[in-house]
Design brief:
six-stranded mixed sheet; globular; Heat Shock Protein 90; 2 domains; single chain; 9 helices; alpha+beta
């Protein structure tokens, strides 16, 4: 009830096992300078107070946003909040063998980059009518997966202890988020550019660490680039699925 009423956000919940000393200080300094235009050495606040002012910690304890964004130790204390990726042979998930399977951990930006590399390394490439000396082009442009994966990492339901799953098949890629669309948001809404910040703190840092603008038009943009995308808001299974087919014809 509190979550639906926008009074409770998972990304602000404390992670008692992690303190400001557990962040990757060099990386945090790079992001801080990118956001504020000054180095850590140029501001006078102690690190715990600075993190609290940035809504990344409270009373000497990192919150979920601080842990996911800046601590590699989060994988020990938040083991479910990772990406599990599998490359299957064929187009059926109900098989006994796979071609590749990885778990991606680290700070949020590292998880994003590793997952993107996995996807782009495993989708088909083709000549697409170019001359024989040309470089093969991917079946789906990279920007499509960047948008969908960034949305998954920033907007998933972190009250659910489950990993984001990425399944790569011979005909499609599936990105499966824990949690259905929040509140009264519908698939029609997101296609029209309506956006709800389920994790407002995490999302506020999204523009600094991911290729994310936060303007609400990302889904509209990728659908213009690649029409063969299905969205499934499965409220019974409490998950949201984006299915990207390699064939770029309307579905």
């Amino acid at each position: 009830m509190f979550q639906a009423g926008d009074f409770l956000h998972a990304d602000e919940m404390p992670v008692p096992a992690l303190s400001p000393s557990d962040i990757e200080l060099l990386y945090f300094g790079q992001v801080y300078e990118k956001i504020y235009g000054e180095t850590l050495d140029e501001q006078e606040l102690p690190l715990p107070q600075l993190l609290q002012n940035m809504n990344l910690a409270k009373d000497g304890v990192l919150n979920l946003s601080g842990a996911l964004l800046f601590s590699r130790k989060s994988r020990f204390f938040l083991p479910s909040f990772i990406v599990k990726a599998v490359k299957y042979s064929g187009s059926d998930i109900n098989v006994d063998q796979y071609r590749d399977s990885r778990d991606f951990t680290g700070v949020l930006e590292e998880i994003f980059e590793s997952t993107m590399q996995f996807i782009m390394n495993n989708i088909p490439y083709s000549q697409k009518g170019q001359h024989v000396n040309s470089i093969a082009e991917p079946a789906v442009q990279k920007i499509v997966f960047e948008e969908l994966l960034a949305n998954a990492l920033l907007h998933r339901d972190y009250f659910i202890s489950a990993a984001i799953r990425v399944f790569v098949f011979d005909d499609r890629v599936e990105i499966i988020n824990p949690g259905h669309l929040p509140n009264n948001l519908t698939i029609g809404n997101i296609k029209a550019g309506v956006s709800v910040a389920r994790n407002p703190v995490l999302t506020s840092f999204g523009t600094a660490v991911l290729p994310y603008r936060g303007l609400g038009n990302g889904i509209r943009r990728v659908l213009k680039i690649h029409k063969s995308i299905d969205f499934i808001d499965d409220r019974e299974a409490n998950q949201f699925k984006a299915i990207v087919y390699y064939d770029n014809s309307p579905r």
